[in-house]
């Protein structure tokens, strides 16, 4: 079943998983996330999609529960992007970076089971290339000029 799982949030703050026909907790929703389940949380009062709000609640619980993922400085930097001209670009950059990190984590686990040293060398080289490209795309989109070496590469490619 590839369809999106629907979770309903009722005015009494309870979450109801329509797939298993029972009330669930935020911990259960976290488990869905950890298992890469596709779901959507809908507010029954107005049928609005509140998935992001629920995910932010889970993140807040995680951040206050143990070793935080985000430092105060990092959170302040993220907040500064809200409402700015680069907000959308920053969101795409962050999402791409996280996607890349997750893919590389999977590749790393697979590669380390085969030839660890070669895998690390190959992944390090690939990382440098990908991060360089991401940063250059970000800088180009922000209107910053690229260095003379990169301009030559771009002109030679055209």
Tell me briefly what this model is.
InterPro entries: PHA_DNA-bd_N (IPR012909), PHA_reg_PhaR (IPR010134), PHB_accumulat (IPR007897). The chain has about 160 residues and is an alpha+beta fold. Helix content is about 60%, strand content about 10%.
Note the topology.
Layout: E1 5-9, E2 15-17, E3 22-24, H1 26-34, E4 39-43, H2 51-65, H3 72-81, H4 87-112, H5 116-141, H6 148-157
Parallel strand pairs: 1-4
Antiparallel strand pairs: 1-2, 2-3
Helix pairs in contact: 1-2, 4-5
Keyword list:
single chain; 158 residues; alpha+beta; 2 domains; four-stranded mixed sheet; 4 strands; PHA_DNA-bd_N
Explain what the structure shows.
- This protein starts with a strand and ends with a helix.
- The protein has helices at residues 26-34, 51-65, 72-81, 87-112, 116-141, 148-157, and strands spanning 5-9, 15-17, 22-24, 39-43.
- Strands 3-2-1-4 form a four-stranded mixed beta sheet.
- The chain has two domains: 5-65, no CATH class; 87-157.
- It contains six helices and four strands, in the order βββαβααααα.
- The chain is globular.
- The chain is an alpha+beta fold and 158 residues long.
- A hairpin with a 5-residue loop joins strand 1 and strand 2.
The level of helicity is 55-70%
Largest sheet: 4 strands, mixed
> What is the number of helices?
6
Tell the overall outline.
globular
Spans of at least 5 consecutive residues whose pLDDT stays below 50 are none
Task: Report the order of strands and helices.
Answer: EEEHEHHHHH
Mean pLDDT across all residues, rounded?
85
Radius of gyration: 21 Å
How much strand content do the residues show? 5-15%
Our measurement of the CA-to-CA distance between the termini, rounded to an integer number of angstroms, reads 46 Å
What oligomeric assembly is this protein in? single chain
Briefly note the structural class of the backbone.
alpha+beta
**What's the number of structural domains?**
2
Main-sheet strand order equals 3-2-1-4
Number of strands: 4
């Amino acid at each position: 079943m590839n369809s999106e799982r629907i979770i309903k949030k009722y005015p009494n703050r309870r979450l109801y998983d329509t797939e298993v026909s029972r009330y669930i907790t935020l911990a259960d929703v976290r488990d869905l996330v950890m298992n890469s389940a596709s779901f959507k949380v809908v507010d029954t009062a107005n049928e609005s999609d509140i998935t992001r709000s629920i995910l932010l609640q889970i993140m807040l619980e995680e951040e206050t529960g143990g070793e935080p993922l985000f430092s105060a400085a990092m959170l302040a930097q993220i907040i500064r992007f809200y409402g700015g001209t680069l907000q959308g670009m920053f969101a795409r950059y962050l999402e791409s970076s996280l996607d890349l990190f997750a893919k590389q984590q999977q590749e790393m686990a697979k590669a380390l089971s085969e030839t660890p040293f070669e895998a690390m060398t190959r992944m390090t080289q690939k990382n440098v290339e990908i991060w360089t490209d991401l940063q250059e795309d970000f800088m180009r989109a922000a209107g910053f000029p690229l260095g003379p070496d990169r301009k030559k590469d771009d002109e030679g490619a055209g």
